[in-house]
Amino acid sequence: MICLIALVVFGVLAIFSAKHRPLAREALDCVLRRITFRPCVANLDQKLKGQTAGWLLEHAPWLAKPVYKNFEFISWVFTFLLFLSIAGSLWGFYNWWAYGNCNGPEQTGFCVFNAVAKGEGLNWGSLLGLKPALTRPEGKAGWLIGSPDAELTVIEFGCYSCPYTKQAEPVVKQLLEHYQGRVNVLFKVFPIPAHPYAKEMALAAEAAGMQGKWLEMHEKLFERQDFARLNGEKEIKAIAGSLGLDLERFERDFKSAQAFERVVATSAEGEKAGIYGTPTFFIGEKTVVGPKEFEEMRALIDGELGK
Q: Can you tell me where the transmembrane regions are (predicted)?
């Protein structure tokens, strides 16, 4: 099926060079005939087979004979790889439009499309209606970390079971230390259903907060995330015990309507804001999705403080 690959190659070249247009037409005719199980009239596949073998005879004689003999099979292999690469590219484009990263939701790795404008929260999926636009929440639900008199409040939506929220935690601490009370963080828990025990970990933080140890539980849940994701409530109770909480009360509060309602409140805010992955930060009107380096976050915060 070398004609299909030739059609792609010569079709692109024909855009820039008139001399390749006859070859592109031959390739198109060949493809149409081959998919209807008819031989190519122009014998383009035979031409390419001969030219390829001739080039190999000159540059790699040992390879010429097996390639010539198995040319049809090799053509099908390359055709399969072509379709595979097209499918991968389309999937990447979809993720780019829908999630702002070609690797998919909650992914922060390198994306060749670089769809998200740094710090601007630009998401092509939002523009195309595939995902709602991210909007800064107005609600006050959540837990404040840092000075209540800070000049700037950074809002963070995070999931205790999300590895990327955990990855962002050291940078958040570094920022709070760096700004010495000028910046605080309003943490809004947003459990991701796909992550194991995300809801239970969120409820545990609320239950600990009822005994005045929300921040301690918050930090421990990230510190022990791997174990909590594996062992669930067993690990959560062990963490509560290590923090010196009244375990009977913790058990009641963990199952209470109050804890549940607090988690529902921040989750509802997140859905209204259009959150599709954690962590998501709102710095003024700018949005950051996924863990970022300290310098990148500091630059955005400095920009807000300088206004």
A: 73-94
Q: What is the pLDDT of residue 232?
A: 92
Give 18's DSSP letter.
G
Q: Which of 184, 185, 226, 221 is nearest to 206 (CA)?
A: 221
Give per-10-residue mean pLDDT for the chain (307 aa): 63 72 75 71 66 79 84 76 81 68 58 41 44 78 93 95 93 94 95 91 96 96 94 94 95 95 94 88 90 92 84
Tokens at residue 137, please? Answer: 């929440």
- Angstrom distance (rounded) from CA 78 to CA 81: 5
CATH code, residues 143-305 = 3.40.30.10
Q: What share of the chain is helix, strand, coil (3-state, %, to 5)?
A: 60, 10, 30
Say if CB 258 and CB 137 are below 8 A apart: no
Residue at token pair 């796909």? 194
Which residue ranges make up each domain of the chain?
2-99, 143-305
**The two three-digit tokens of residue 19, written as one number:** 């001399």
- Closest-CA residue to 142 (of 198, 199, 209): 209
3-state secondary structure of 62: helix
The type of residue at 239 is: I
pTM attached to this predicted model: 0.61
Comparing CA positions, the residue from 145, 190, 152 lying closest to residue 285 is 152
Instruction: Enter the tokens of residue 209.
Output: 């907060």
